[in-house]
Every structure is written in structure tokens, then in C-alpha cells.
Amino acid sequence: MSLSECVKIESLSKHFAETVAVSDVSLSVGRGEIFCLLGGSGCGKTTLLRMLAGFERPTAGRILIDGMDMADVPPNRRPVNLMFQSYALFPHMSVFQNVAFGLEQERVSRTEIDRRVREMLDAVKLEGLAGRKPQQLSGGQRQRVALARALVKRPKLLLLDEPLGALDKKLREHTQFELVALQRQLGITFVVVTHDQQEAMSLATRIGVMNQGRIVQVGTPDEIYESPATRFVADFIGSVNIFEGHIGNSGEGGLIAHCGALQIPLPSRVAMPDGTRLALALRPEKIRLQRQSDTGAQVGQRGTVEEVGYLGESSHYRVRLDDGTPLRVDVVNHRRDASQRIQRAERVTLTWSADDLIVLTD
Amino acid sequence: MGRSRISRWTVAIPLIWLLLFLAAPFVMVFLISLSEVRLAMPPYAPFIEWVADSWRWNLDADNYLFIWQDGLYFEAFSYSLKVAAIATLCCLLVGYPMAYAIAQAPERWRSWLLLAIILPFWTSFLLRVYAWIGLLKTDGLINQALLALGVITSPLQLLYTDFAVLIGIVYSYLPFMILPLYANLERHDRLLLEAAADLGASTWTRFWRITLPLSRPGVVAGCLLVFIPAAGEFVIPSLLGRSDQLMIGRVLADEFFANRDWPVAGAVAMILLIVLLLPMVGFQKSIQRQSEDGV
């Protein structure tokens, strides 16, 4: 085990009666990382988090934190703290008492507790609210109390269960940046569970995508988005157009995929035998959309705009190709003039670089 | 319009009820307590009399003064409060673990366990107290069992003691402690205990710092439900208790039925009411404070 590893999970499984919540997960999280476990509801991410905190016993496998096997360590002895999704603040204690609770368990002196709690409340900008009860706080303030309470013990690992889930959109974006800044400042390793891909993308140094109890891909946000390993990942993160087909007769200078009536040139690095079944994934923003009247040459795919969704900073187009395939295309509106934008029912040409195609064979 | 008339009536019905069956008797008893005893029917002087060309009120605080000066009443009061307090404490010590265990039990078990708590109410209260006589008397089941086991060599005097009264009260009123406690404990958010464990608290600390303070309204409600009727209890001390030490309920009954001294009985009742009202007021205050905290 290398020194920079904070958490090491070895073939961890958890079964509840009939169902398998977590299945053979192996993972390591480096010190100082923000690692996001991303997946839909019921994918096992929360169970995995609860095993790290010690609230669930693994059916099989090991968890090492800082090199120490956690098998027989109860939650109250782990160098780990959890920020609960519902915050689970103690309603009968003030903000100060909530934050001090963890330190009191460590038999830290009163003056030391006082100093560290004040320091922590400063860090999360709750200085003036130390005497309030949780019920007297707004959602955002409660979230920060929960964060302060979990961080004040300076755990080796902080687990966050949907940390921004209960906040409204504006506050969420703001808090996201604060959370990252705080994490950098304290240097504590974060493991975040979320179902929100945007939250994961903006917070994480690395993301582990989970599906049906398994980790299907681990990578940086960029890797997960631009090079998804499976169709599930491609589909789960962001929007994607999928073409199904097989490798056809090799053309000059590269392979061609036959997807229905479409013939799509593949990236030059792809090498597969003829007839291999595959799926091509293409992100909507990677497609260039042009009026047919503007493109003379016979390049790209032709189609008709069926729907336009104007979102302000960008527009989402639904285009039906002439062979009947529907495609989604996202275009940034970098001009104010509405007449510059392609409208519904216009004939269009779609082009993309072969390198932007993601080739999936699963 | 019709709706507001209905809502006005729904308020009026309990109000009329309270007026007829609480306020009116209260005023009656209060007036009787200020009156003086007469060998007549009813056995007290009229509140107001026509004497020498004018109406004269026949009311004074003599009965209260009498109760204050006669040590018997004070002793009965303090004995009753002491017994009620000890019984309440015993109920709490026995009832809390039971309520806690039921609240922790798997959901499909809980209603059965609660049923078991309520089941004794299906037989008559009096019958259950009589049953304790059978258990506690000198040749009763408990003494026989202890003798047979060789724990004791001669039977213990269990019946007609403070101990017997305590057992009777604790046994009879235990459900009134358990039910409000259960109602409170069952609502507790388990995540709070997990959060406390996560922050390093041991099982004991979790109970002491989280569960217990959050169950305070349940504890207070249970204690009042036991303490108030126990302090005025009449049947249990009459059947199981000492004959040389009266509880105030017994004194009240004796004044009323045996002495036919309604005014003194009325005064005793008023004092009892006031003594028992004080903890209620305190409870109301504490509930108010808690709801301000949003607990």
C-alpha cells in the first residue's frame, strides 16, 4: 500500500437477505482527493458509504483506512466522519453544542474545544449563529453546521452523503465552490456520494460510476465524460446520441461503421475485424449544425430540424436524419441576432470529427 | 357562513362540557369549602343568609385554617406526595426500559407488545388490587414461594405496608408511564444516534446525551399521568396500606362519608387540587419551551 493512499477497498460486497447491494468493489482513494461515487438510486453507493462509516458490516472484502483494517472497528472509533444527507443535527443542542459534541467525546480540554469550535464556525461562516438551535437556521446554514460538525474532529476521511442535495440551485452552485475551497484548505480526503452528475463533475478529482452494486468505471471527470467505458456510463453522464451497427467493408484509410443506412467513418486508431458489432456514442455538443444552403459540398449527414429548445446560453435541437435516425445537437448561442439561429423545419447538414466518436463494444 | 357556525359549535361543545362538569362543580366545592358544617341536608350552612334586614355572606376561610393547624392533614398530604413521588420514580425506572425496548422492537412486534401493556385494563381495577392481597398476605403466594425456596424461615409482613402500597400503585399506573414514553421514543430519528456514534459517542453517551434529553416531554407526561392520580389514590392504600398512616385520598373520603363534614372535605379537595396543579403548570411551561426549540 502506497503512502498516498487514504482508503483502500478490496473486493467488498454487501448482501441484504436476497438483494446484493454492493458487489465485489475494489477501489483506492488517494490522500487529499475528492472522490465521488456517482450512480442512480439503489445502485449501492449509499451502502458503500455506510460500510466506510461502519454502520454496515461487509458481507465480504476489506476496508483499509490509512493502512488499518476497519473490520472490527465500530463507527465511534473510526478516523472517519460522515455528513448525513438529512444533516442529522441534534435538535436539542445549539449550533455550538452540535459542533462541540464530537470533540467532547475525545476528552479534549474545554478551552481547546472552545477554540476549535470557534475556528471551525469561522471557516464555514457561522460565527454569529453559535447560540442558535438548528430549527432557527436556513437550509444552507444547517448544511454548514453539519459540515463543521463533521470536520471539526479533523478526520482522515470525510464522507458526504448527497451534501448539496437539499439546497436550491443557486445556493448549491455557490456551496459547491466553498466545499472545494474548504477541502483544499484542510487537506482532508473527501468521499462524496451523489446521484447528480453535475455535482460530481464539478466537485470530484475522480469519479467512480456505480451501477447495480458494481463500480463500472473510475476516472477523472474528463475521462468519464469524454471516454466512457460502457454504454451505461455514456448514457448516465450527460446526453448522448447512440448509433448501433457493425464494422463494414474497410474503406480507404480507415474503418466504416454501418449503422442502418448510415455509413460512419471511424477514428483511425480503431482496429477491429469486419462484422464486429459496436455502438457509437456522440455527444450533442460535438456535432456541428449548418444550414444546407450554407454548405455546398456533399459532406456530412443531412436532415431536418424537428424541434428547437431555446435555453438562453444554448439551444437544443432535435434533428431527424434523412434515413430516419433522430439526433440531438447542442449549439451555443454566441450571437444575439435570432435570425442567425437555425429554426424549426430547416434543412441542415451535420458534421463531426471522427475522433469525437466514442466506440463502445459492450 | 355555515362553516363558521359549525366550527363555532365544535368549540362550544367542549366548552359547555367543561363549564357544566368542571367549572360548576369546582365553584360549588370551593363555596362549600368556605362554608361551615351543619347537621342538616345538605350538611353545610347556606352561603348567603337573610339576617337582620340584610343579606349576609356565610363564608370564611376557617376550614383552611383548621387544616393548617391540625397536623393530621399536613402529615397525610406529605405522606401522599412522598408515596406518589416514589411510585412515580419507580414507574419511570421500570417503564422507561420497557418503553424503550418496545420502541426498538421490530415494527411487526410493537403493536403486540403494546397490547400486552394494555391487556390488564381489560379486568377490573379493583379485582387487580384484590389479587395483590392474595399475593402479598402472610400465607400468600410470595411468602409461600420464599418459604419453599428456603430464602426465609418465617413469613414476611408484606401486606398493609408502604411497600404494598408502592407495589399496588406502580403496578396499576405503569401503563400510564409506558404509553406516553413509547409515543415519544418511537418518533426518535435513528439517524441522530448514528450521527452521535459517527462523532465518537459510546452507546451509553448516545443514550445519555441524545435519547434521554429528547424523550423529556415523554418523561414529564408519563410522570404527571402517574403522580397526579397516585397522590390522590384512595382504593390502593385502603386495601393494601397501613391503617395508622392515611393518604390524603383516604382522609378526604373519611371527612366526606364518615364525618359528613363537607366543608372540610371541600377544603382538603381544593388544597389537593392546587398542589397537583403546580406540576401541571410547570409541564405546560416546559412543553412550550420545547416547542419553541422545535423538538
Question: Brief description of this entry?
Answer:
The complex is a heterodimer of chains A (362) and B (295). In chain A, 23% of the residues lie in helices and 34% in strands.
CATH superfamily of the largest domain in chain A, by name, is: P-loop containing nucleotide triphosphate hydrolases
Output the CATH topology of chain B: MetI-like fold
Strand percent estimate of chain A: 25-35%
Name of the CATH architecture of chain B = Orthogonal Bundle
User: Which bin fits the share of residues in helices of chain A?
Assistant: 10-25%
Largest sheet entry of chain A = 6 strands, mixed
Q: Please bin the fraction of helical residues of chain B.
A: over 70%
- In the residues of chain A, how many domains can be counted? 2
Describe this structure in words.
The complex is a heterodimer of chains A (362) and B (295). With 362 residues, chain A is α+β, with helices and mostly antiparallel strands. Chain A folds into two domains: 232 residues, P-loop containing nucleotide triphosphate hydrolases (Rossmann fold, 3-Layer(aba) Sandwich), CATH 3.40.50.300; 120 residues, Nucleic acid-binding proteins (OB fold (Dihydrolipoamide Acetyltransferase, E2P)), CATH 2.40.50.140. Chain A contains eight helices and 20 strands. In chain A, the strands form four sheets. Chain A has a six-stranded mixed beta sheet with strand order 6-7-8-3-9-10, sandwiched between helices. In chain A, strand 16 and strand 17 form a beta hairpin. In chain A, helix 2 crosses helix 3 and helix 3 packs across helix 4. Chain A starts with a strand and ends with a strand. With 295 residues, chain B is an all-alpha fold. Chain B has a single domain, classed as MetI-like fold (Orthogonal Bundle), CATH 1.10.3720. Helices cover 74% and strands 3% of the residues of chain B. Chain B is built from 13 helices and two strands; from the N terminus they run H-E-E-H-H-H-H-H-H-H-H-H-H-H-H. Chain B has a two-stranded antiparallel ribbon. The longest helix of chain B is centred in the N-terminal third of the chain and has 34 residues. Chain B is globular and about 85 Å long. The chains are: A alpha+beta (362), B mainly alpha (295). The interface between A and B is medium-sized, with 28 and 20 residues.
